[in-house]
Write a structure and sequence with these properties.
Helix content: 40-55%
Distance between the termini: 97 Å
Strand content: 25-35%
Number of strands: 8
Number of helices: 10
Radius of gyration: 33 Å
Shape: elongated
Order of helices and strands: HHHHEEEHEEHHHHEEEH
Strand order of the largest sheet: 5-4-8-7-6
Structural class: alpha+beta
Largest sheet: 5 strands, antiparallel
Length: about 250
């Protein structure tokens, strides 16, 4: 028809009488297209079959095809009618979205920071390699488990639950000190950013937590604080007069 002519660049006179598959379908798709047409000739129609067509100038077009059996006045099969939809632009957008999704998945998996995700029920959906290395749980051991109940110590469960619930309502939290317990009983402290996760429609689907392991930093800070406290007590209780002045002699 006119749309096929404008899409592919062939006039009706150029295509009538020619074998569709042999002349207009690339080699790698000929078997599958032949199968669809043969099935339709046997009365088995096919819906939403995706295949590429190339224009007269060599440009690829992605077509979503419905192949319908064509019958004569007595019900006998006389051919096949193909009704197609040009989905080239849709396919390009979909391919780009898939590439972005793949890039993000690789980023999450290979990031040098523990990253986890939970759904709206608090069940683990994401658990990257760094989280697995730190806590000793493989991704297969964590997905589907309740994050708070399984990986957070009881005394911290309420505060962590509050952070996740806030994120699920759209209120994100930055720099939350998250205590974690490894599979082998080792305690870690992670500085966490809890981000709301949304789908393409903007609906909340869960929370993504991106953390930074500050266990050693916190230990060093606590040691420094203990030393400062000890010195303060030493000065306060020393059996000798001790005073201090600033740079102005006060």
């Amino acid at each position: 028809n006119a749309k096929a002519s404008s899409l592919l660049g062939y006039s009706k006179q150029e295509v009538l009488g020619k074998n569709l598959v042999a002349n207009f379908i690339t080699q790698e798709f000929r078997d599958s297209v032949n199968q669809v047409l043969s099935s339709a000739l046997l009365g088995k129609e096919t819906a939403n079959f995706e295949f590429p067509l190339f224009t007269k100038s060599g440009e690829r077009k992605d077509i979503l095809l419905n192949a319908t059996t064509r019958r004569g006045p007595n019900g006998e099969v006389i051919g096949v009618i193909g009704v197609g939809q040009d989905i080239t632009q849709i396919r390009e957008v979909t391919d780009e979205q898939e590439r972005v999704a793949d890039d993000l998945s690789r980023l999450i998996e290979t990031a040098n920071a523990p990253i986890f995700g939970v759904d709206v029920n608090g069940m683990v959906t994401e658990w990257n390699r760094k989280a697995a290395e730190m806590l000793g749980y493989a991704k297969q051991e964590t997905v589907g488990m309740n994050f708070v109940e399984r990986f957070i110590q009881r005394e911290n469960q309420k505060s962590v639950s509050d952070v996740l619930q806030k994120a699920l309502s759209g209120r994100e939290t930055a720099n939350f000190s998250l205590p974690l317990l490894s599979k082998h009983g080792q305690r870690y402290t992670v500085l966490l950013n809890a981000t709301t996760r949304r789908d393409a429609k903007g609906d909340v689907t869960g929370v993504v937590g991106v953390g930074q392991d500050i266990t050693e930093i916190k230990k060093a800070s606590e040691r420094a604080q203990r030393i400062a406290d000890d010195l303060t007590r030493l000065i306060e209780t020393a059996n000798a007069p001790i005073f201090g002045i600033d740079t102005h002699g006060k």
